[in-house]
Amino acid sequence: MGVEGVLRLARARVLIVGLGGLGSVVALYLARGGVGELVLADPDTVTLSNLPRQILYADRHVGQLKTDAAHETLAGLGASGLRLVPERLQGARLADEVARVDLVCDASDNFATRFAINEACAQAAIPLVSAAVIRMTGQLLVVHPGDSAAGCYRCLYPEGGEDAESCSERGVLGPVAGALATLQAAEAMKVLAGIPTPLSRDLWMFDDATLESRRVRRRRDPDCPVCKTRP
Question: How many domains in the chain?
Answer without folding.
Answer: 1
